[in-house]
């Protein structure tokens, strides 16, 4: 006889499949068996129908298609005997789901079986309905399930309650029909029925506000009685787990109490005593007890509990933090993060334990504890907490050091009240984890130093000391180099020494040595090298005897493969050699950086980053269609940190989002000038090029009318042009610019000033024979009927620009 014929038993087919050594052999066996089952189905074989369906379920579990046998499930369900029905319902739940249209055919069979006299057949129908219930089936069969909730059989009640949960999830409108039978289930003594009833009440509360109010009035006393009974009951072998009587029922009752008591003071008042009893009597030596305690704490924090009860709950969480189980410590930290907004003082008492969890060996617990510490920090405890975190920073793992550094910097920046304490703590962080400090953090530190003149000497001396030991920390080196470049004379001359400082002697050569060492040690970081070159250039002005040595150091980078460094080296060398007359004014100390403006820019930049992240995906495809693959960055309109732009002119826009780099001239791209009186060109602007602000322009000289005085009335006047040539910064070489570019005005005329009596108009032109000179022709128009006398016109420009002023060309 063929071993794969229809009468083959299920165990024989399983044995044959397991004996297959390859997937091909298994597929061959399954294919033959499926063919035999199809033949039996076509012949309407009723004798072995249940056996064929059992084989199909096993084949389905192996992942093979079995859709051809779905109708066999319906035929078995319609059978009279229990064994056939059992296999049919099992196949229905396994081979079909609620999306199958064939389920419409089974609704009538389910209705008949729900009304069957055999409780086991009723149980089969309830199980099937609870697993594959659709919205249409729920509406059709809800009355039968509602009736079964009041059955005398405990098994039927339990299964009907679970089936009701599926029904209200599919059709929430039926919740009000089920609320009264659900409430009656809480009177049962059988724990299985109680658990199903509590779960049903919980789901009913979530889908209907009216049901929630009804259960608040009728169920709270019953729930309290259930908790008292299981808390005070003696040992029961049937329900005992690790010394706790039915922790599953405990937890579900506590969850339902939390939902009923949330936002309702009267309901919460009834629960306070029983919650205190559960919290104080439950043992925490086993996981079952810890689970009940955690749910009790969550319920206490969720309802309108008294302050004393909340303190008791937080103390339980404090004990959890000392538990050896990682999961218990983690859930305790999670709950404390929620509780800190409600009972901050109670959580503060466990601050020492929470700090210990920051040093935990588990990475997840470390991060969660660090987040909790950040929430605990306030003005009164910021100093001890920061000290603890910085002490741990020195010995923390490399993987955790980045997160820890970011949190410490946020705490210092947010809660610092004294500039001295702020700088001291930031220096400690830079020494221990300078490689993990983000750019905006040390940028903010530089802004703070520039706004604290009384601390500038202390800061530069402190940074000089720590540089000798921690020269491998990039952020520390960058801040130290910047401070030495700006305040080197305070370092050498011991200016503004604080009482706590120890005396030290630093020579001019020592200051240069530090910057030179930063160039050698950080050869791979362009930002640090650029800062170092700028610092060297400033030291050449502050310490003239070291100029030649500094020039040699700078010239070493003339052949750098990095274009930015190469350009800086050539320009700085030219300044040292050929432009002594403007070097001192050009290399003056940087103006004080306005902290408020910087913070506004940083905030706007972070908002722009968030919006850019949201639109990056949608813009990525469009950006590929731009010519030559050029993507134009969105310009910002923030005020310039150096306040070089006046209120009357639009501020320079920049695509860079790093504002301190903008100030220091590191990694900037050329942008179009938006000043109305300056035309973009291919020349070099001395001041703007050295400060790297905006785009290089050709404005190396300016001709402007300065003063007009006369005792007679003044009518509109014009002034003749005159030119003077200034040597270019880079060896006096002139740029090759076509003459046609300068034959016409490079910028439209502007009205510089206008009132009811006077209007001043500027016209800009360039001479073809000398494109480095800009001629500004001023026209003064008297708009009044009276004559002007003793008229004086004055204009101010940066000191770096040589100007020539001419007398008025004519008077009318």
What is the terminal-to-terminal distance?
Answer: 129 Å
Output mean pLDDT: 79
Q: Give the strand line-up of the largest sheet.
A: 4-5-6-3-7
Helix content: 55-70%
Structural class: mainly alpha
The total of beta strands comes to: 7
Overall body shape? elongated
Q: How would you explain this protein's 3D organization?
A:
The chain has 812 residues and is mostly helical. The strands form 2 sheets. Strands 4-5-6-3-7 form a 5-stranded mixed sheet, with no helix packed on it. Strands 1-2 form a two-stranded antiparallel sheet. A hairpin with a 3-residue loop joins strand 4 (747-754) and strand 5 (758-766). Helix 9 runs antiparallel to helix 10 and helix 20 runs parallel beside helix 22. Mean pLDDT is 79; it is low at 1-6 and 617-745.
Strands, helices and their partners?
Layout: H1 10-18, H2 23-42, H3 49-61, H4 70-77, H5 82-95, H6 107-114, H7 119-132, H8 135-148, H9 154-170, H10 175-185, H11 191-207, H12 209-232, E1 240-241, E2 244-245, H13 247-261, H14 265-281, H15 287-302, H16 307-321, H17 326-339, H18 344-348, H19 351-358, H20 363-376, H21 382-393, H22 398-415, H23 419-433, H24 439-450, H25 453-467, H26 474-493, H27 508-521, H28 526-542, H29 547-555, H30 563-578, H31 580-586, H32 595-623, H33 659-664, H34 686-691, E3 701-703, E4 747-754, E5 758-766, E6 773-782, E7 803-804
Parallel strand pairs: 3-6, 3-7
Antiparallel strand pairs: 1-2, 4-5, 5-6
Quick rundown:
InterPro entries: Adaptor_Complx_Large_Subunit, AP1_complex_gsu, ARM-like, ARM-type_fold, Clathrin/coatomer_adapt-like_N, Clathrin_a/b/g-adaptin_app_Ig, Clathrin_app_Ig-like_sf, GAE_dom. The protein is built from 34 helices and 7 strands. By secondary structure, it is mostly helical.
């Amino acid at each position: 006889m063929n071993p794969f014929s229809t009468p083959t038993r299920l165990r024989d087919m399983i044995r044959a499949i397991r004996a297959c050594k390859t997937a091909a052999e298994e597929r061959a066996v399954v294919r033959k068996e499926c063919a035999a089952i199809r033949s039996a189905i076509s012949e309407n074989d009723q004798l072995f129908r249940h056996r064929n369906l059992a084989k199909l379920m096993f084949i389905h579990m192996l992942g093979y298609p079995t859709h051809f046998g779905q109708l066999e499930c319906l035929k078995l369900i319609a059978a009279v005997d229990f064994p056939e029905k059992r296999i049919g319902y099992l196949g229905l739940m396994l081979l079909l789901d609620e999306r199958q249209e064939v389920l419409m055919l089974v609704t009538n069979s389910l209705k008949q079986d729900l009304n069957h006299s055999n409780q086991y057949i009723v149980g089969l129908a309830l199980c099937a309905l609870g697993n594959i219930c659709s919205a249409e089936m729920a509406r059709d069969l809800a009355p039968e399930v509602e009736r079964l909730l009041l059955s005398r059989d405990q098994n039927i009640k339990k299964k009907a309650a679970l089936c009701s949960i599926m029904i209200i999830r599919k059709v929430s409108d039926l919740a009000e029909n089920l609320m009264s039978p659900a409430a009656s289930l809480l009177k049962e003594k059988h724990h299985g029925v109680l658990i199903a009833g509590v779960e049903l009440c919980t789901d009913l509360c979530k889908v209907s506000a009216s049901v929630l109010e009804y259960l608040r009035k009728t169920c709270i006393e019953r729930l309290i009685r259930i908790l008292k009974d299981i808390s005070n009951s003696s040992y029961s072998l049937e329900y005992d787990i690790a010394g706790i009587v039915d922790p599953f029922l405990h937890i579900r009752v506590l969850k339902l109490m939390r939902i009923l008591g949330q936002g309702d003071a009267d309901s919460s008042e009834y629960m306070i005593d029983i919650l205190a009893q559960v919290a104080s009597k439950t043992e925490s030596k086993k996981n079952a007890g810890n689970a009940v305690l955690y749910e009790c704490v969550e319920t206490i924090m969720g309802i309108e509990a008294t302050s004393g009860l909340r303190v008791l709950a937080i103390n339980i969480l404090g004990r959890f933090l000392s538990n050896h189980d990682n999961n218990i410590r983690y859930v305790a930290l999670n709950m404390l993060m929620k509780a800190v907004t409600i009972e901050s003082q109670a959580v503060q008492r466990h601050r020492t334990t929470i700090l210990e969890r920051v040093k935990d060996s588990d990475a997840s617990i470390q991060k969660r504890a660090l987040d909790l510490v950040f929430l605990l920090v306030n003005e009164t405890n910021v100093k001890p907490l920061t000290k603890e975190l910085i002490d741990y920073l020195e010995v923390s793992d490399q993987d955790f050091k980045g997160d820890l550094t970011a949190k410490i910097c946020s705490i210092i920046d947010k809660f610092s009240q004294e500039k001295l304490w702020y700088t001291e703590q930031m220096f400690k962080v830079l020494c221990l984890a300078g490689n993990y400090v983000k750019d905006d953090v040390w940028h903010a530190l530089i802004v703070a130093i520039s706004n604290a003149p009384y601390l500038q000497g202390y800061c530069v001396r402190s940074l000089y000391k720590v540089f000798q030991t921690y020269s491998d920390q990039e952020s520390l080196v960058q801040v130290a180099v910047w401070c030495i470049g700006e305040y080197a004379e305070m370092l050498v001359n011991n200016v503004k020494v604080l009482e706590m400082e120890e005396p030290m002697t630093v020579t001019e050569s020592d200051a240069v040595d530090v910057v030179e060492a930063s160039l050698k040690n950080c050869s791979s970081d362009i930002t640090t090298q650029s800062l170092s070159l700028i610092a060297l250039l400033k030291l050449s002005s502050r310490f003239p005897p070291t100029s030649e040595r500094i020039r040699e150091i700078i010239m070493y980078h003339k052949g750098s493969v990095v274009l930015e460094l190469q350009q800086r080296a050539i320009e700085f060398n030219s300044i040292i050699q050929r432009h002594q007359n403007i070097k001192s004014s050009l290399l003056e100390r940087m103006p004080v950086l306005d902290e408020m403006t910087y913070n506004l820019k940083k905030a706007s930049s972070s908002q722009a980053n968030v919006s850019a992240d949201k639109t990056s995906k949608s813009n990525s495809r469009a950006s590929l269609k731009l010519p030559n693959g050029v993507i134009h960055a969105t310009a910002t309109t923030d005020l310039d940190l150096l306040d070089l732009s006046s209120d009357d002119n639009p501020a320079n826009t920049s695509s860079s989002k790093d504002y301190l780099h903008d100030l220091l001239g590191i990694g900037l791209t050329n942008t179009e000038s938006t000043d109305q009186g300056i035309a973009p060109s291919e020349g070099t602007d001395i001041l703007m090029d050295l400060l790297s602000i905006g785009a290089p322009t050709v404005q190396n000289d300016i001709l402007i009318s300065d003063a007009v005085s006369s005792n007679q009335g003044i009518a509109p006047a014009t002034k003749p042009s005159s030119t003077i040539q200034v040597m270019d910064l880079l060896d006096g070489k002139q740029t090759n610019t076509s003459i046609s570019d300068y034959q016409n005005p490079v910028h439209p005329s502007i009205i510089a000033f206008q009132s009811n009596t006077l209007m001043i108009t500027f016209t800009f032109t360039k001479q073809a024979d000398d494109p480095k000179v800009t001629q500004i022709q001023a026209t003064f128009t008297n708009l009044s009927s009276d004559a002007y006398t003793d008229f004086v016109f004055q204009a101010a420009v940066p000191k770096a620009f040589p100007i020539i002023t001419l007398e008025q060309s004519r008077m009318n």
